Amino acid sequence: MKVISSFLCAALAAASMSASHAADKPVLLKMPIYYGSHLPGLGSVAKYVADNAGVLSGGSVKVKLYEPKKLIAPGEILDAVSSGKVQAGYATPGNWGGKMPAARLFSAVPFGPEAPEYLAWLMYGNGGKLHQELYDKSGYNVKTQTCGIIAPETSGWFAKEINKPEDLKGLKMRFFGLGAEVMEKLGVSTVGLPGGEIFPALEKGAIDATEFSMPAIDKRIGLSKIVKFNYYPGWHQQATVFELIINKDTWKKMSDTQQAVITQLCRAATLDSLALGEAIQAPVMAENVKNGVQNKYWSEEMLATFEAKWGEVVEEQKAKDAEFAKIWADLSAFRKDYSLWEKNAFLPR
Questions:
Q1: In this predicted model, what pLDDT tens digit does every residue of 217-262 receive, in sequence order?
Q2: Which residues, in sequence order, are CB contacts of 72 under 8 Å at separation 6+?
């Protein structure tokens, strides 16, 4: 009887959900993405969302994915979603650093939290609330939510060894986010380039060095063919968070069920992206070595230098931007509390 009762409950729940989906007004989310869906962990997560939204919603929510530049330029995604030109977009908040400097704190923080700690702050601390508040205060008509995360990136591909801070001075380098501010303090001239433009820029000598992402992603754009010194750890991006933004008017018109589908789908996508990223790096690193790449780990001197310069950047950003100061204070307080758990719970490496 227990088995039959359980079966009936499951059947009734499924029928109820199907009925709920049937009553929902269909929603189509046109979603341009910042990074190509062929890039594992960067753009592939958006494809995961698009592929599963229809299935999980019983067909009431459909997501049509547009590769970079196919509908609008990547840099225009936030404005396009806010205005309702498109209903949704996928990127990392750091892409909007030029519009909202504090948004970079929801993307990747130098010497900042690793993925579990970052997600703890975003999902169960004040991070998620502060993220939405920043967009609201900045006049953006979007609903944002964490929808993907990758673990550490590498911190640079160089044509020669970097043994001391002076070796960086004068280099032209592609660099992302708040880490670029640190590199500038060390005499590096930084530029932001999309993934597709990095290889030709290195090949033509427009830049001397670059960072982009994790080894499996860097492989897709061929960095190891030109530069042979790949530096770790990714002090500038120990974790990188991605977001799904939806036009707020569109979001409000969606049913509770449709909103729940998107929210839970993003949580699943976040877990999937983290697991995928962790699973596929080591084989690529080993392959790189066979092809002449040297995997280098920064010396204590270099890491201390990066961290000291990062401290200067923080103070400057706090002085310039009240929102940055507010969000930084909250993240710092969370991390201070978290450190008691971190120091006691984990085995030393």
A1: 999 999 999 999 999 999 999 999 999 999 999 999 999 999 999 9
A2: 32, 66, 80, 85, 86
Dihedral sign from CA coordinates of 71, 76, 80, 81:
positive
Token pair of 244, please? 């799904």
The helix or strand, by DSSP H or E, that contains position 348, with its residue range, turns out to be none
Q: Please tell me the distance from the alpha carbon of residue 201 to that of residue 203, in angstroms, as a whole number.
A: 5
Per DSSP bridges, beta strands 240-247 and 61-66 are: unpaired
Percent of the chain with pLDDT over 90: 90
For tokens 């204070």, name the residue: 329
Tokens of 249: 């008017």
Measured CA to CA, the distance from residue 241 to residue 3 in angstroms comes to 43
Residue 292, class by beta-carbon neighbours within 10 Å (0-12 exposed, 13-18 middle, 19+ buried)?
exposed
Beta bridge partners of 156: 231
CA dihedral 233, 149, 95, 105 (to 10 degrees): -70
Residue pLDDT, tens place only, 89-146: 999 999 999 999 999 999 999 999 999 999 999 999 999 999 999 999 999 999 999 9
Helical ranges in 206-255 per DSSP H = 215-220, 248-253
Question: What is this structure's pTM?
Answer: 0.91
Q: How many CB atoms lie within 10 A of CB 244?
A: 28
Helix extents (H) in the chain? 2-23, 44-56, 77-83, 115-124, 127-137, 177-185, 195-204, 215-220, 248-253, 256-279, 281-290, 300-320, 322-345
Cα separations (Å) of 47 from 53, 64, 76, 141, 291? Answer: 10, 9, 20, 24, 31
Contacts of 289 by beta carbon, 8 Å cutoff, 6+ apart: 295
Indicate whether 319 pLDDT > 60: yes
Q: Are strands 142-150 and 172-174 parallel, antiparallel or unpaired?
A: unpaired
> Which neighbouring-strand residues pair with 63?
29
